[in-house]
Write a structure and sequence with these properties.
The chain is an alpha+beta fold. The mean pLDDT is 93. Helix content is 33%, strand content 26%. Helix 1 packs across helix 2 and helix 5 crosses helix 7. The protein is globular and about 55 Å long.
Amino acid sequence: MSSLLYNHIEMLIADQLKNWETARVNYTNLSKGLTRELKFGDNIRIKIQYNPERMRSSTAVRDPKTVERKSCFLCRDNRPPQQMGIEYRNDYIILINPYPIFDKHLTLPSLSHSPQLIAGRFTDMLELTKQLSEYSLFYNGPNCGASAPDHFHFQAGNKGFMPIEDEFQKAEKELLSSLKGCNTYALNHGFRKVLVLCGSDSLKLTMLFNHIMRIFSSYLPSDPEPMINIISLWQDEEWSIFVFPRQKHRPDQYFLSAKEQILLSPASVDFGGVLITPRQEDYEKLNKETIKDIFEQLSLEDKIWEAIKNELRD
């Protein structure tokens, strides 16, 4: 990260925590919150975070008619007057997220009100990831956890928080393709299906990603785009891009009644290994068996996963 941008972001965070009560209270509460960790074998960790302020995100209604009726909280005119930001190249604005998951949690919405679709934005994601190299950047598809499916945005959180970031180095990786230094790996990461794109050439990575999305469109629910979550890192002078293909938005447990319900609506951070539970009963209820079941519901079936990998090999 450039020292100038880093300093500006640090000053923004400090200013917001001093002068915006909502942000100050929620970040203070986050530091006092409950977390626990479960291990699956030697290399896989899942953290569980009890975070009641994420209730509005976990329960957000995302059907188009409901979204259309609501005012967009990412548009300039609808943001709280206390919320300040840093404009980035006349395309995005860097904001502190007032309902944090990370110790430092940013939201980066487009300055224009446009749909949450990654097409044409992946190069921006690579550039922002490199510029914000102390952070992990992530993207939630419109049907994969985005709290504002009508306004394009990325999010970012301090690097090292999500277990998958360092687990990738230790995991068994299956090399599917290599294009002059840009590699595509399949990571059969326990109960999550993951493609990992690694390389230092943004043009080649963008071409590779667009190719993958074309393949996904034949196998994944794709209205309005193939269901995916993305986590992006810049380290050791190259990008590591984690792409999680999905077949479902929310698990069956979300729709059960009363004591059987688990209010969990997984997005990128959850797939990265940190489950966000807005209710304490769900925080306490989650166990290895249930977590495995939830991710197996949301991730691709083995037959579809193998078909996608075969196409990438070709």
